[in-house]
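Why this split exists: single-chain examples teach little about how molecules sit against one another. For that reason, every record in the complexes split bundles all components of an assembly together and asks for one structure covering all of them. Below is a record exactly as it appears in the raw files.
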Amino acid sequence: MTGNGRLETALPWLFVIGFLLVWQLACLVFHIPAFVLPSPTLIAAALQKQIGPIMENSWVTLLRTLVGFAIAVVLGVLLGLAIGMFRFIYRGLYPVLVGFNSIPKVAVVPVFVIWFGIGTIPAVLTAFLVSFFPIAVNVATGLATIEPELLDVMRVLGAKRRTILMKIGLPRSMPYFFASLKVAITLAFVGTIVSETVASNSGIGYLMMAATANFDTPLVFAGLIVIAVMGIAMYALCAAIEHRMTFWAKRGEGLMA
Amino acid sequence: MRPFVDISKVSLTYGGGPGGTLALDDATLRIGKGEFVAVVGPSGCGKSTLLKLVSGLHPATRGGVLVADREVDGPLSIVGMAFQNPIMLPWRSTLENVLLPLEIVEPHASRFRSHQAEYREKALDILSVVGLDDFPDHYPWQLSGGMQQRTSLCRALIHEPELLLLDEPFGALDAFTREELWVVLENLWLKQRFTAILVTHDLTEAVYLADTVHVCSKRPGRIIASTAVNLPRPRDIYGSEFVSIVRSLKDNIIEVRAA
């Protein structure tokens, strides 16, 4: 690796360390009380002290998120294909979906609680609801933007719609699909945690609510950091899969200087 | 002899209704089996429309097209087509792009999985004819425009179509590459002896490749003149006979445009 490459790998860490230093200094210099904004060292101490419950609850949150996300991927892709393939679904269902997506999901959680009680089911459902929409829209966009010339190549050969979908439609929408996965996985975390803070007695969202009730602000921040770490890990996983699957779509550096 | 492609009194209106554009009006063209014809004419005269009709991509408004004694009412498996742009599938390597028709057209499609090795061999063969033996695993964006167009030719011919349709396939290339590809195409034709319809606005290209050059009127298009080119192949594009045929075609087209 060249010196430049090593610097690029180190950059995110340098940014984080710099940010933490500024934060720590600000807390010291301005004497910010810990229950308002705890310093990084206090948060680290809280993280260390409560590592057991934190790990336990983040595991619960991670599982709920992944289940919701998995459902969102399956249904999102199917719905996206349906929207992209059939005009009457595009005309009929799409506006309804847009309207539905505009509803703040936190407002739906109480309804889920009425139906399913508190705990895992509303959390999984909320994760699913917030994350399936971008997947469906992107897959549909991938299909809708197929170059007519590509279709001509297939049609001249007498290809059926099913064949065109398999040979052109699906590969052509993969870059859109993976772009949406990166958005969707982070949204899924938001969904789970929103639901956990409102209606759960487990999960990292619940832990943070409980800590807030005790004015244990360092623990709240510890929870936030754990969430961020999980989010980054899942995002990186999606990005790695994307890189493997759609290398053909990303050939340059884009506009990056 | 019955013509292999029989386009008789075909009209085609785009858009439909009184506001539609009449692209072809009573166009008639007969092509014998194994013949290489070129259709030239001023731009917008409906040359490409003619190919859309023969390929079955677009139905005629009036009249009909027969290919091998069958009415064209949709795409035919005996047809291969190359377009003005190479239109590669960017997620497929050169070899995989060439293999595409075999995955779709019968009888190859149903035996494609079990005979993959054999088909790959076949694709490599045709790639080597056009001089791309070293690039089967390259992706389209790693190829130059000329190489992509060669790949496109291979793709149009891999399933050994009886009728090859060429819609200005070399229009976007530089002069050197274009002339090189004429030779490549001519060799493929001499080897496989398919029937070919080449639409082009390059008269030298038309006279170099075709047995018969048909001139299309300005819109609405119809065939108004046909010239047989009886020069031995490979043709010398600077020979006096060659040049005089090109010149008379050019005069012909200037007349058409002025009319």
